[in-house]
Write a structure and sequence with these properties.
By secondary structure, the chain is an alpha/beta fold. It has one domain: Rossmann fold. It is built from eight helices and seven strands, in the order E-H-E-H-E-H-E-H-E-H-E-H-H-H-E. The longest helix has 23 residues. The chain starts with 6 loop residues before the first strand and ends in an 8-residue tail after the last strand. The chain binds NADP nicotinamide-adenine-dinucleotide phosphate. The site of NADP nicotinamide-adenine-dinucleotide phosphate has 29 residues, from helix 1, strand 5 and helix 6. NADP nicotinamide-adenine-dinucleotide phosphate binds next to helix 1, strand 5 and helix 6. It comes from Cupriavidus lacunae. Belongs to the short-chain dehydrogenases/reductases (SDR) family.
Amino acid sequence: MSETSKVVLVTGATGGIGSAVCARLAHAGYSLILAARDIGKLQGACANLRRLGGQSFHWISVDMSSDASVASFSHELAAEGSVLDGVVLMPPQMRPTGECQPPADTWRQLFQSNFIGPLELLKSAISTMQPEPSQGRRAKIVIISAITSVQALGNYATSNVLRCAWLAQAKTLAFAMGERGIHVNTLSLGGTLTPDYVASIGQRATKVGMTFDERLAEETSNIPLRKYGSPEEVALAVEVLLSPFSDHMTGVNLLHDGGFTRTY
Ligand SMILES: NC(=O)c1ccc[n+]([C@@H]2O[C@H](COP(=O)([O-])OP(=O)(O)OC[C@H]3O[C@@H](n4cnc5c(N)ncnc54)[C@H](OP(=O)(O)O)[C@@H]3O)[C@@H](O)[C@H]2O)c1
């Protein structure tokens, strides 16, 4: 099957990384279903992709923090009868926090928006898949994670917990669904220069009286490749994980961090 006939759902499709992923996959000929909350941004993103010369794009809005919204998304996905060949699942971005004992309500909210909601959405996406490994038709799920999945970071206290939950869930799904030809891999990102992340570096620079470039050099001095990743580099890695490159890979957590993670 060529990429031109494959359909991929991308959540977080209007964000810094999601936009780059959609552009890359559109260029490769995939048909895309874009998901996020803001309808105006989804419409703009689809219009942009058409301008880039891609072919088949549409959107379904969803708020992953709401059971009702995820249920309505699932209903719409099933009703339109799309058969998905891939999913790029991006749980919403988690804000940095050093608070290691947040109140119970914070945990409930975070688990809902960053784990339970995205997992329900993923379940509905999986139910549309019709892989046939004997005919070389495989379905690929790429879950975007972060390096806190393998290494605790002091300023990402809640992320440390939720990313590990996703790693365990991805591995569990990979075991359960491998025989059907459904692959589940995670891509764990280090700092990635989305517009928001660039702005946050700028803010940190201003706070300590540095230029942007000075601060960027300081922040990346403990990364072997001496740089943060770019959204385009992430998009390339996603495309590769959706491709036949991963035909014998499932349950893998691939680090995309410039070598930052020291663990084996
Ligand atoms: N940038 C980094 O340095 C970095 C590092 C490690 C991991 N990551 C991970 O990479 C992924 C993408 O990050 P990003 O930097 O591209 O984030 P971003 O620019 O903030 O984009 C987030 C995307 O998710 C959507 N979204 C947010 N809340 C949502 C909700 N409740 N329900 C449904 N969609 C929602 C947003 O659109 P709406 O607001 O319209 O819903 C947007 O499309 C995230 O999982 C993030 O944790 C990023």
